[in-house]
Amino acid sequence: VWLGTHVDPDGDAIGSLLGLGRILRTSGRQVTLACADPVPSDLRFLPGCSTIVDSGPDAREHDLAVALDAGDAGRLGDLFDAGTWSTLPSLVIDHHVSNPGFGDVNLIDARAASTAEMIVGLLEELGLEPDAGAATCLLTGIVTDTIGFRTSNTTAATLAAAAKLMQAGAPLTEITQRIFSTRPLGALRLQGRALDRLRVEGPFAIASITLADLGELNVGPAEARGISSFLATAAEPRAVAVLREREDGQIDVSMRARPGADLSQAAQALGGGGHALAAGARVDGPLAAAEEQVLEALRVHAAPPPAPDSP
Ligand code: AMP
Ligand code: MN
Ligand code: MN
After folding, report:
1. pLDDT in tens, 13-47
2. d(Cα 19, Cα 120) in Å, to the nearest integer?
3. What is the CB < 6 Å shell around ligand 1?
4. Which residues surround the ion ligand 2 when the cut-off is CB under 5 Å?
5. What are the C-alpha distances in Å from 152 to residues 68, 111, 176, 277?
């Protein structure tokens, strides 16, 4: 079985990949685990992450390709090749509402707060028990995607899945410490710069991070993750967009909204995808033009409802 996850992987991507991979391996399957980008440093404590490769499925070697936490085929990056994918059966397991269902079989549950939560449900149906290692990977997926059980899609089922993983030996406190309470100083300083630069435009706020910022503070692009969630704690803006310059000249856009707003349309208009309150896209540079493009998409697709007429 070949299992792959999305580019710029987050905790749900890596946690689901390693968790399901480990369970399949334990139950006698041969597995290949793949991601086009490296594992971010804060997730390298997860067991098995050194076994992740960056190659796509091969019909001579694999009987099945499984895509995890990837909202569309493009999110697999170089791992997706339409020709190869058409030659072997494929399974998509994902929780993005915008997923078109690009597999032969598609398990898509937009109510699930993470792909890892879906995998816990799947294991129950299959009668498979995770060991402590797999449980740690899956709980990391749940904890990161729900920002510590705080997102609006966190349900009783999310907590029940997490409880099951703790019973299997997953250390919740260690995971939350590593994910939320341990950041390189440079990453914190980068947050400071983004906060200083945050520009309010009507109901929206926007900030950009340049390649020069990353160089000066000696932080990798993965360390910029989390800045949009941090800035979205600002009470006034309805939504916040953080733009980050990439080496290839393109711009990664990460957006967060306050409950009530819906970013998924704006993200799709920018060629990306995501959820109502957390969405993203990759757009063309330069930064100044990208900022205007993002603001325009927000104005058109995520505007507040018109105020009721005053009596
Ligand atoms: P992020 O802001 O990077 O944490 O991503 C928030 C959400 O948007 C995640 O659910 C991603 O799957 C989705 N997303 C981010 N970037 C893209 C992209 N370039 N294309 C499609 N979906 C994206
Ligand atoms: Mn993800
Ligand atoms: Mn996810």
Report:
1. 999 999 999 999 999 999 999 999 999 989 999 99
2. 10
3. 71, 75, 96, 228, 254, 272-275, 278-282
4. 10, 12-13, 69
5. 22, 10, 18, 8
